[in-house]
Amino acid sequence: MKIYTKTGDQGTTALFGGTRVPKHHIRIDSYGTVDELNAWLGLLRDQPMHQEGKETLMHIQEKLFTVGAILATDPQKATLKNGRERLNIPRIKDADIAFLEGAIDRMDAQLPPMTHFILPGGHTTVSYCHLARTVCRRAERMATLLHENEPFDPEVLRYLNRLSDYLFVLSRKLSLDLGGEEVKWIPEKGV
User: Fold this and answer.
1) What is the predicted pLDDT for the residue at 142?
2) CA separation (Å) from 33 to 9, 113, 139, 160?
3) For the chain, how far is it from start to end, CA to CA, in angstroms?
4) Which CATH number fits domain 21-74+91-109+116-181: 3.40.50.150, 1.25.40.10, 1.20.1200.10, 2.60.40.1180?
5) Burial code of 115-140, b = ≥16 C-beta within 10 A, e = fewer?
6) Helix 155-178 × helix 94-108 angle, to 10°
7) Could you read off the pLDDT tens digit of each residue along the chain, which spans 191 residues?
8) Contact yes or no for 140/162 (Cβ under 8 A)
9) 5 — phi, psi (to 5°)?
10) Are 144 and 30 in contact (CB under 8 A)?
11) Which of 188, 171, 189, 169 is nearest to 180 (CA)?
């Protein structure tokens, strides 16, 4: 199978279900940003960290393929006239969100209380984690815009929101584990 099809040479691409849309369509931006996030998580997973963190990131990367598939599906082509699903796409479930919440709670229990905003940085691995978090937030913003215009399963929005929370707490845990400095943001007075 060849990697190039030439079908996108005129600036369009096909969604799951066959509908063609411009490559700048919000649906493409949405799942493209999820793909970018997945690449950042792969880079993060390749950095020094505890094995549980690596395994959790691998699990999240697999879930992001599900998120991408949901976002890449034309909702009008996803179901048959009898209401049955036409495409066999997995779903994001409550258990997937609970998985992230459990990981957040376990890490948070090991961290000092947060009393200030924290500046990204302190260690290369921590910085990669913050980059992934910001891409996750962008994916969430794009997905909410898409959802506003072409609704899809709202569990995807919950998952992306919780994932950005997970990545923030992971950045703090990595900072602790790797001996990175957690720099608190203290606003200038009188400015």
Assistant:
1) 97
2) 21, 32, 5, 11
3) 60
4) 1.20.1200.10
5) eeebeeebbebbbbbbbbbebbbbbb
6) 20
7) 677 777 667 777 666 766 766 567 889 899 999 999 999 999 999 999 999 999 999 999 999 999 999 999 887 766 555 555 656 788 999 999 999 999 999 999 999 998 889 999 999 999 999 999 999 999 999 999 999 999 999 999 999 999 999 999 999 999 999 999 888 888 886 55
8) no
9) -115, -20
10) no
11) 171
In contact, 74 and 111? CB cutoff 8 Å: no
- Give the separation between CA 159 and CA 116, rounded to whole angstroms: 25
Write down the pLDDT at residue 12.
72
Per domain, the residue ranges of the chain are 21-74+91-109+116-181
Is the torsion defined by CA of 89, 156, 168, 107 positive or negative? negative
Q: Kindly state the tokens that stand for 119.
A: 């500046």
CA angle 142, 128, 136 (to 5 degrees): 15
**Contact status, residue 118 vs residue 129, Cβ threshold 8 Å:** no
Contacts of 141 (CB under 8 A, 6+ apart): none
**β-strands 20-22, 12-14: how paired?**
antiparallel
Structure tokens at 175: 């900072």
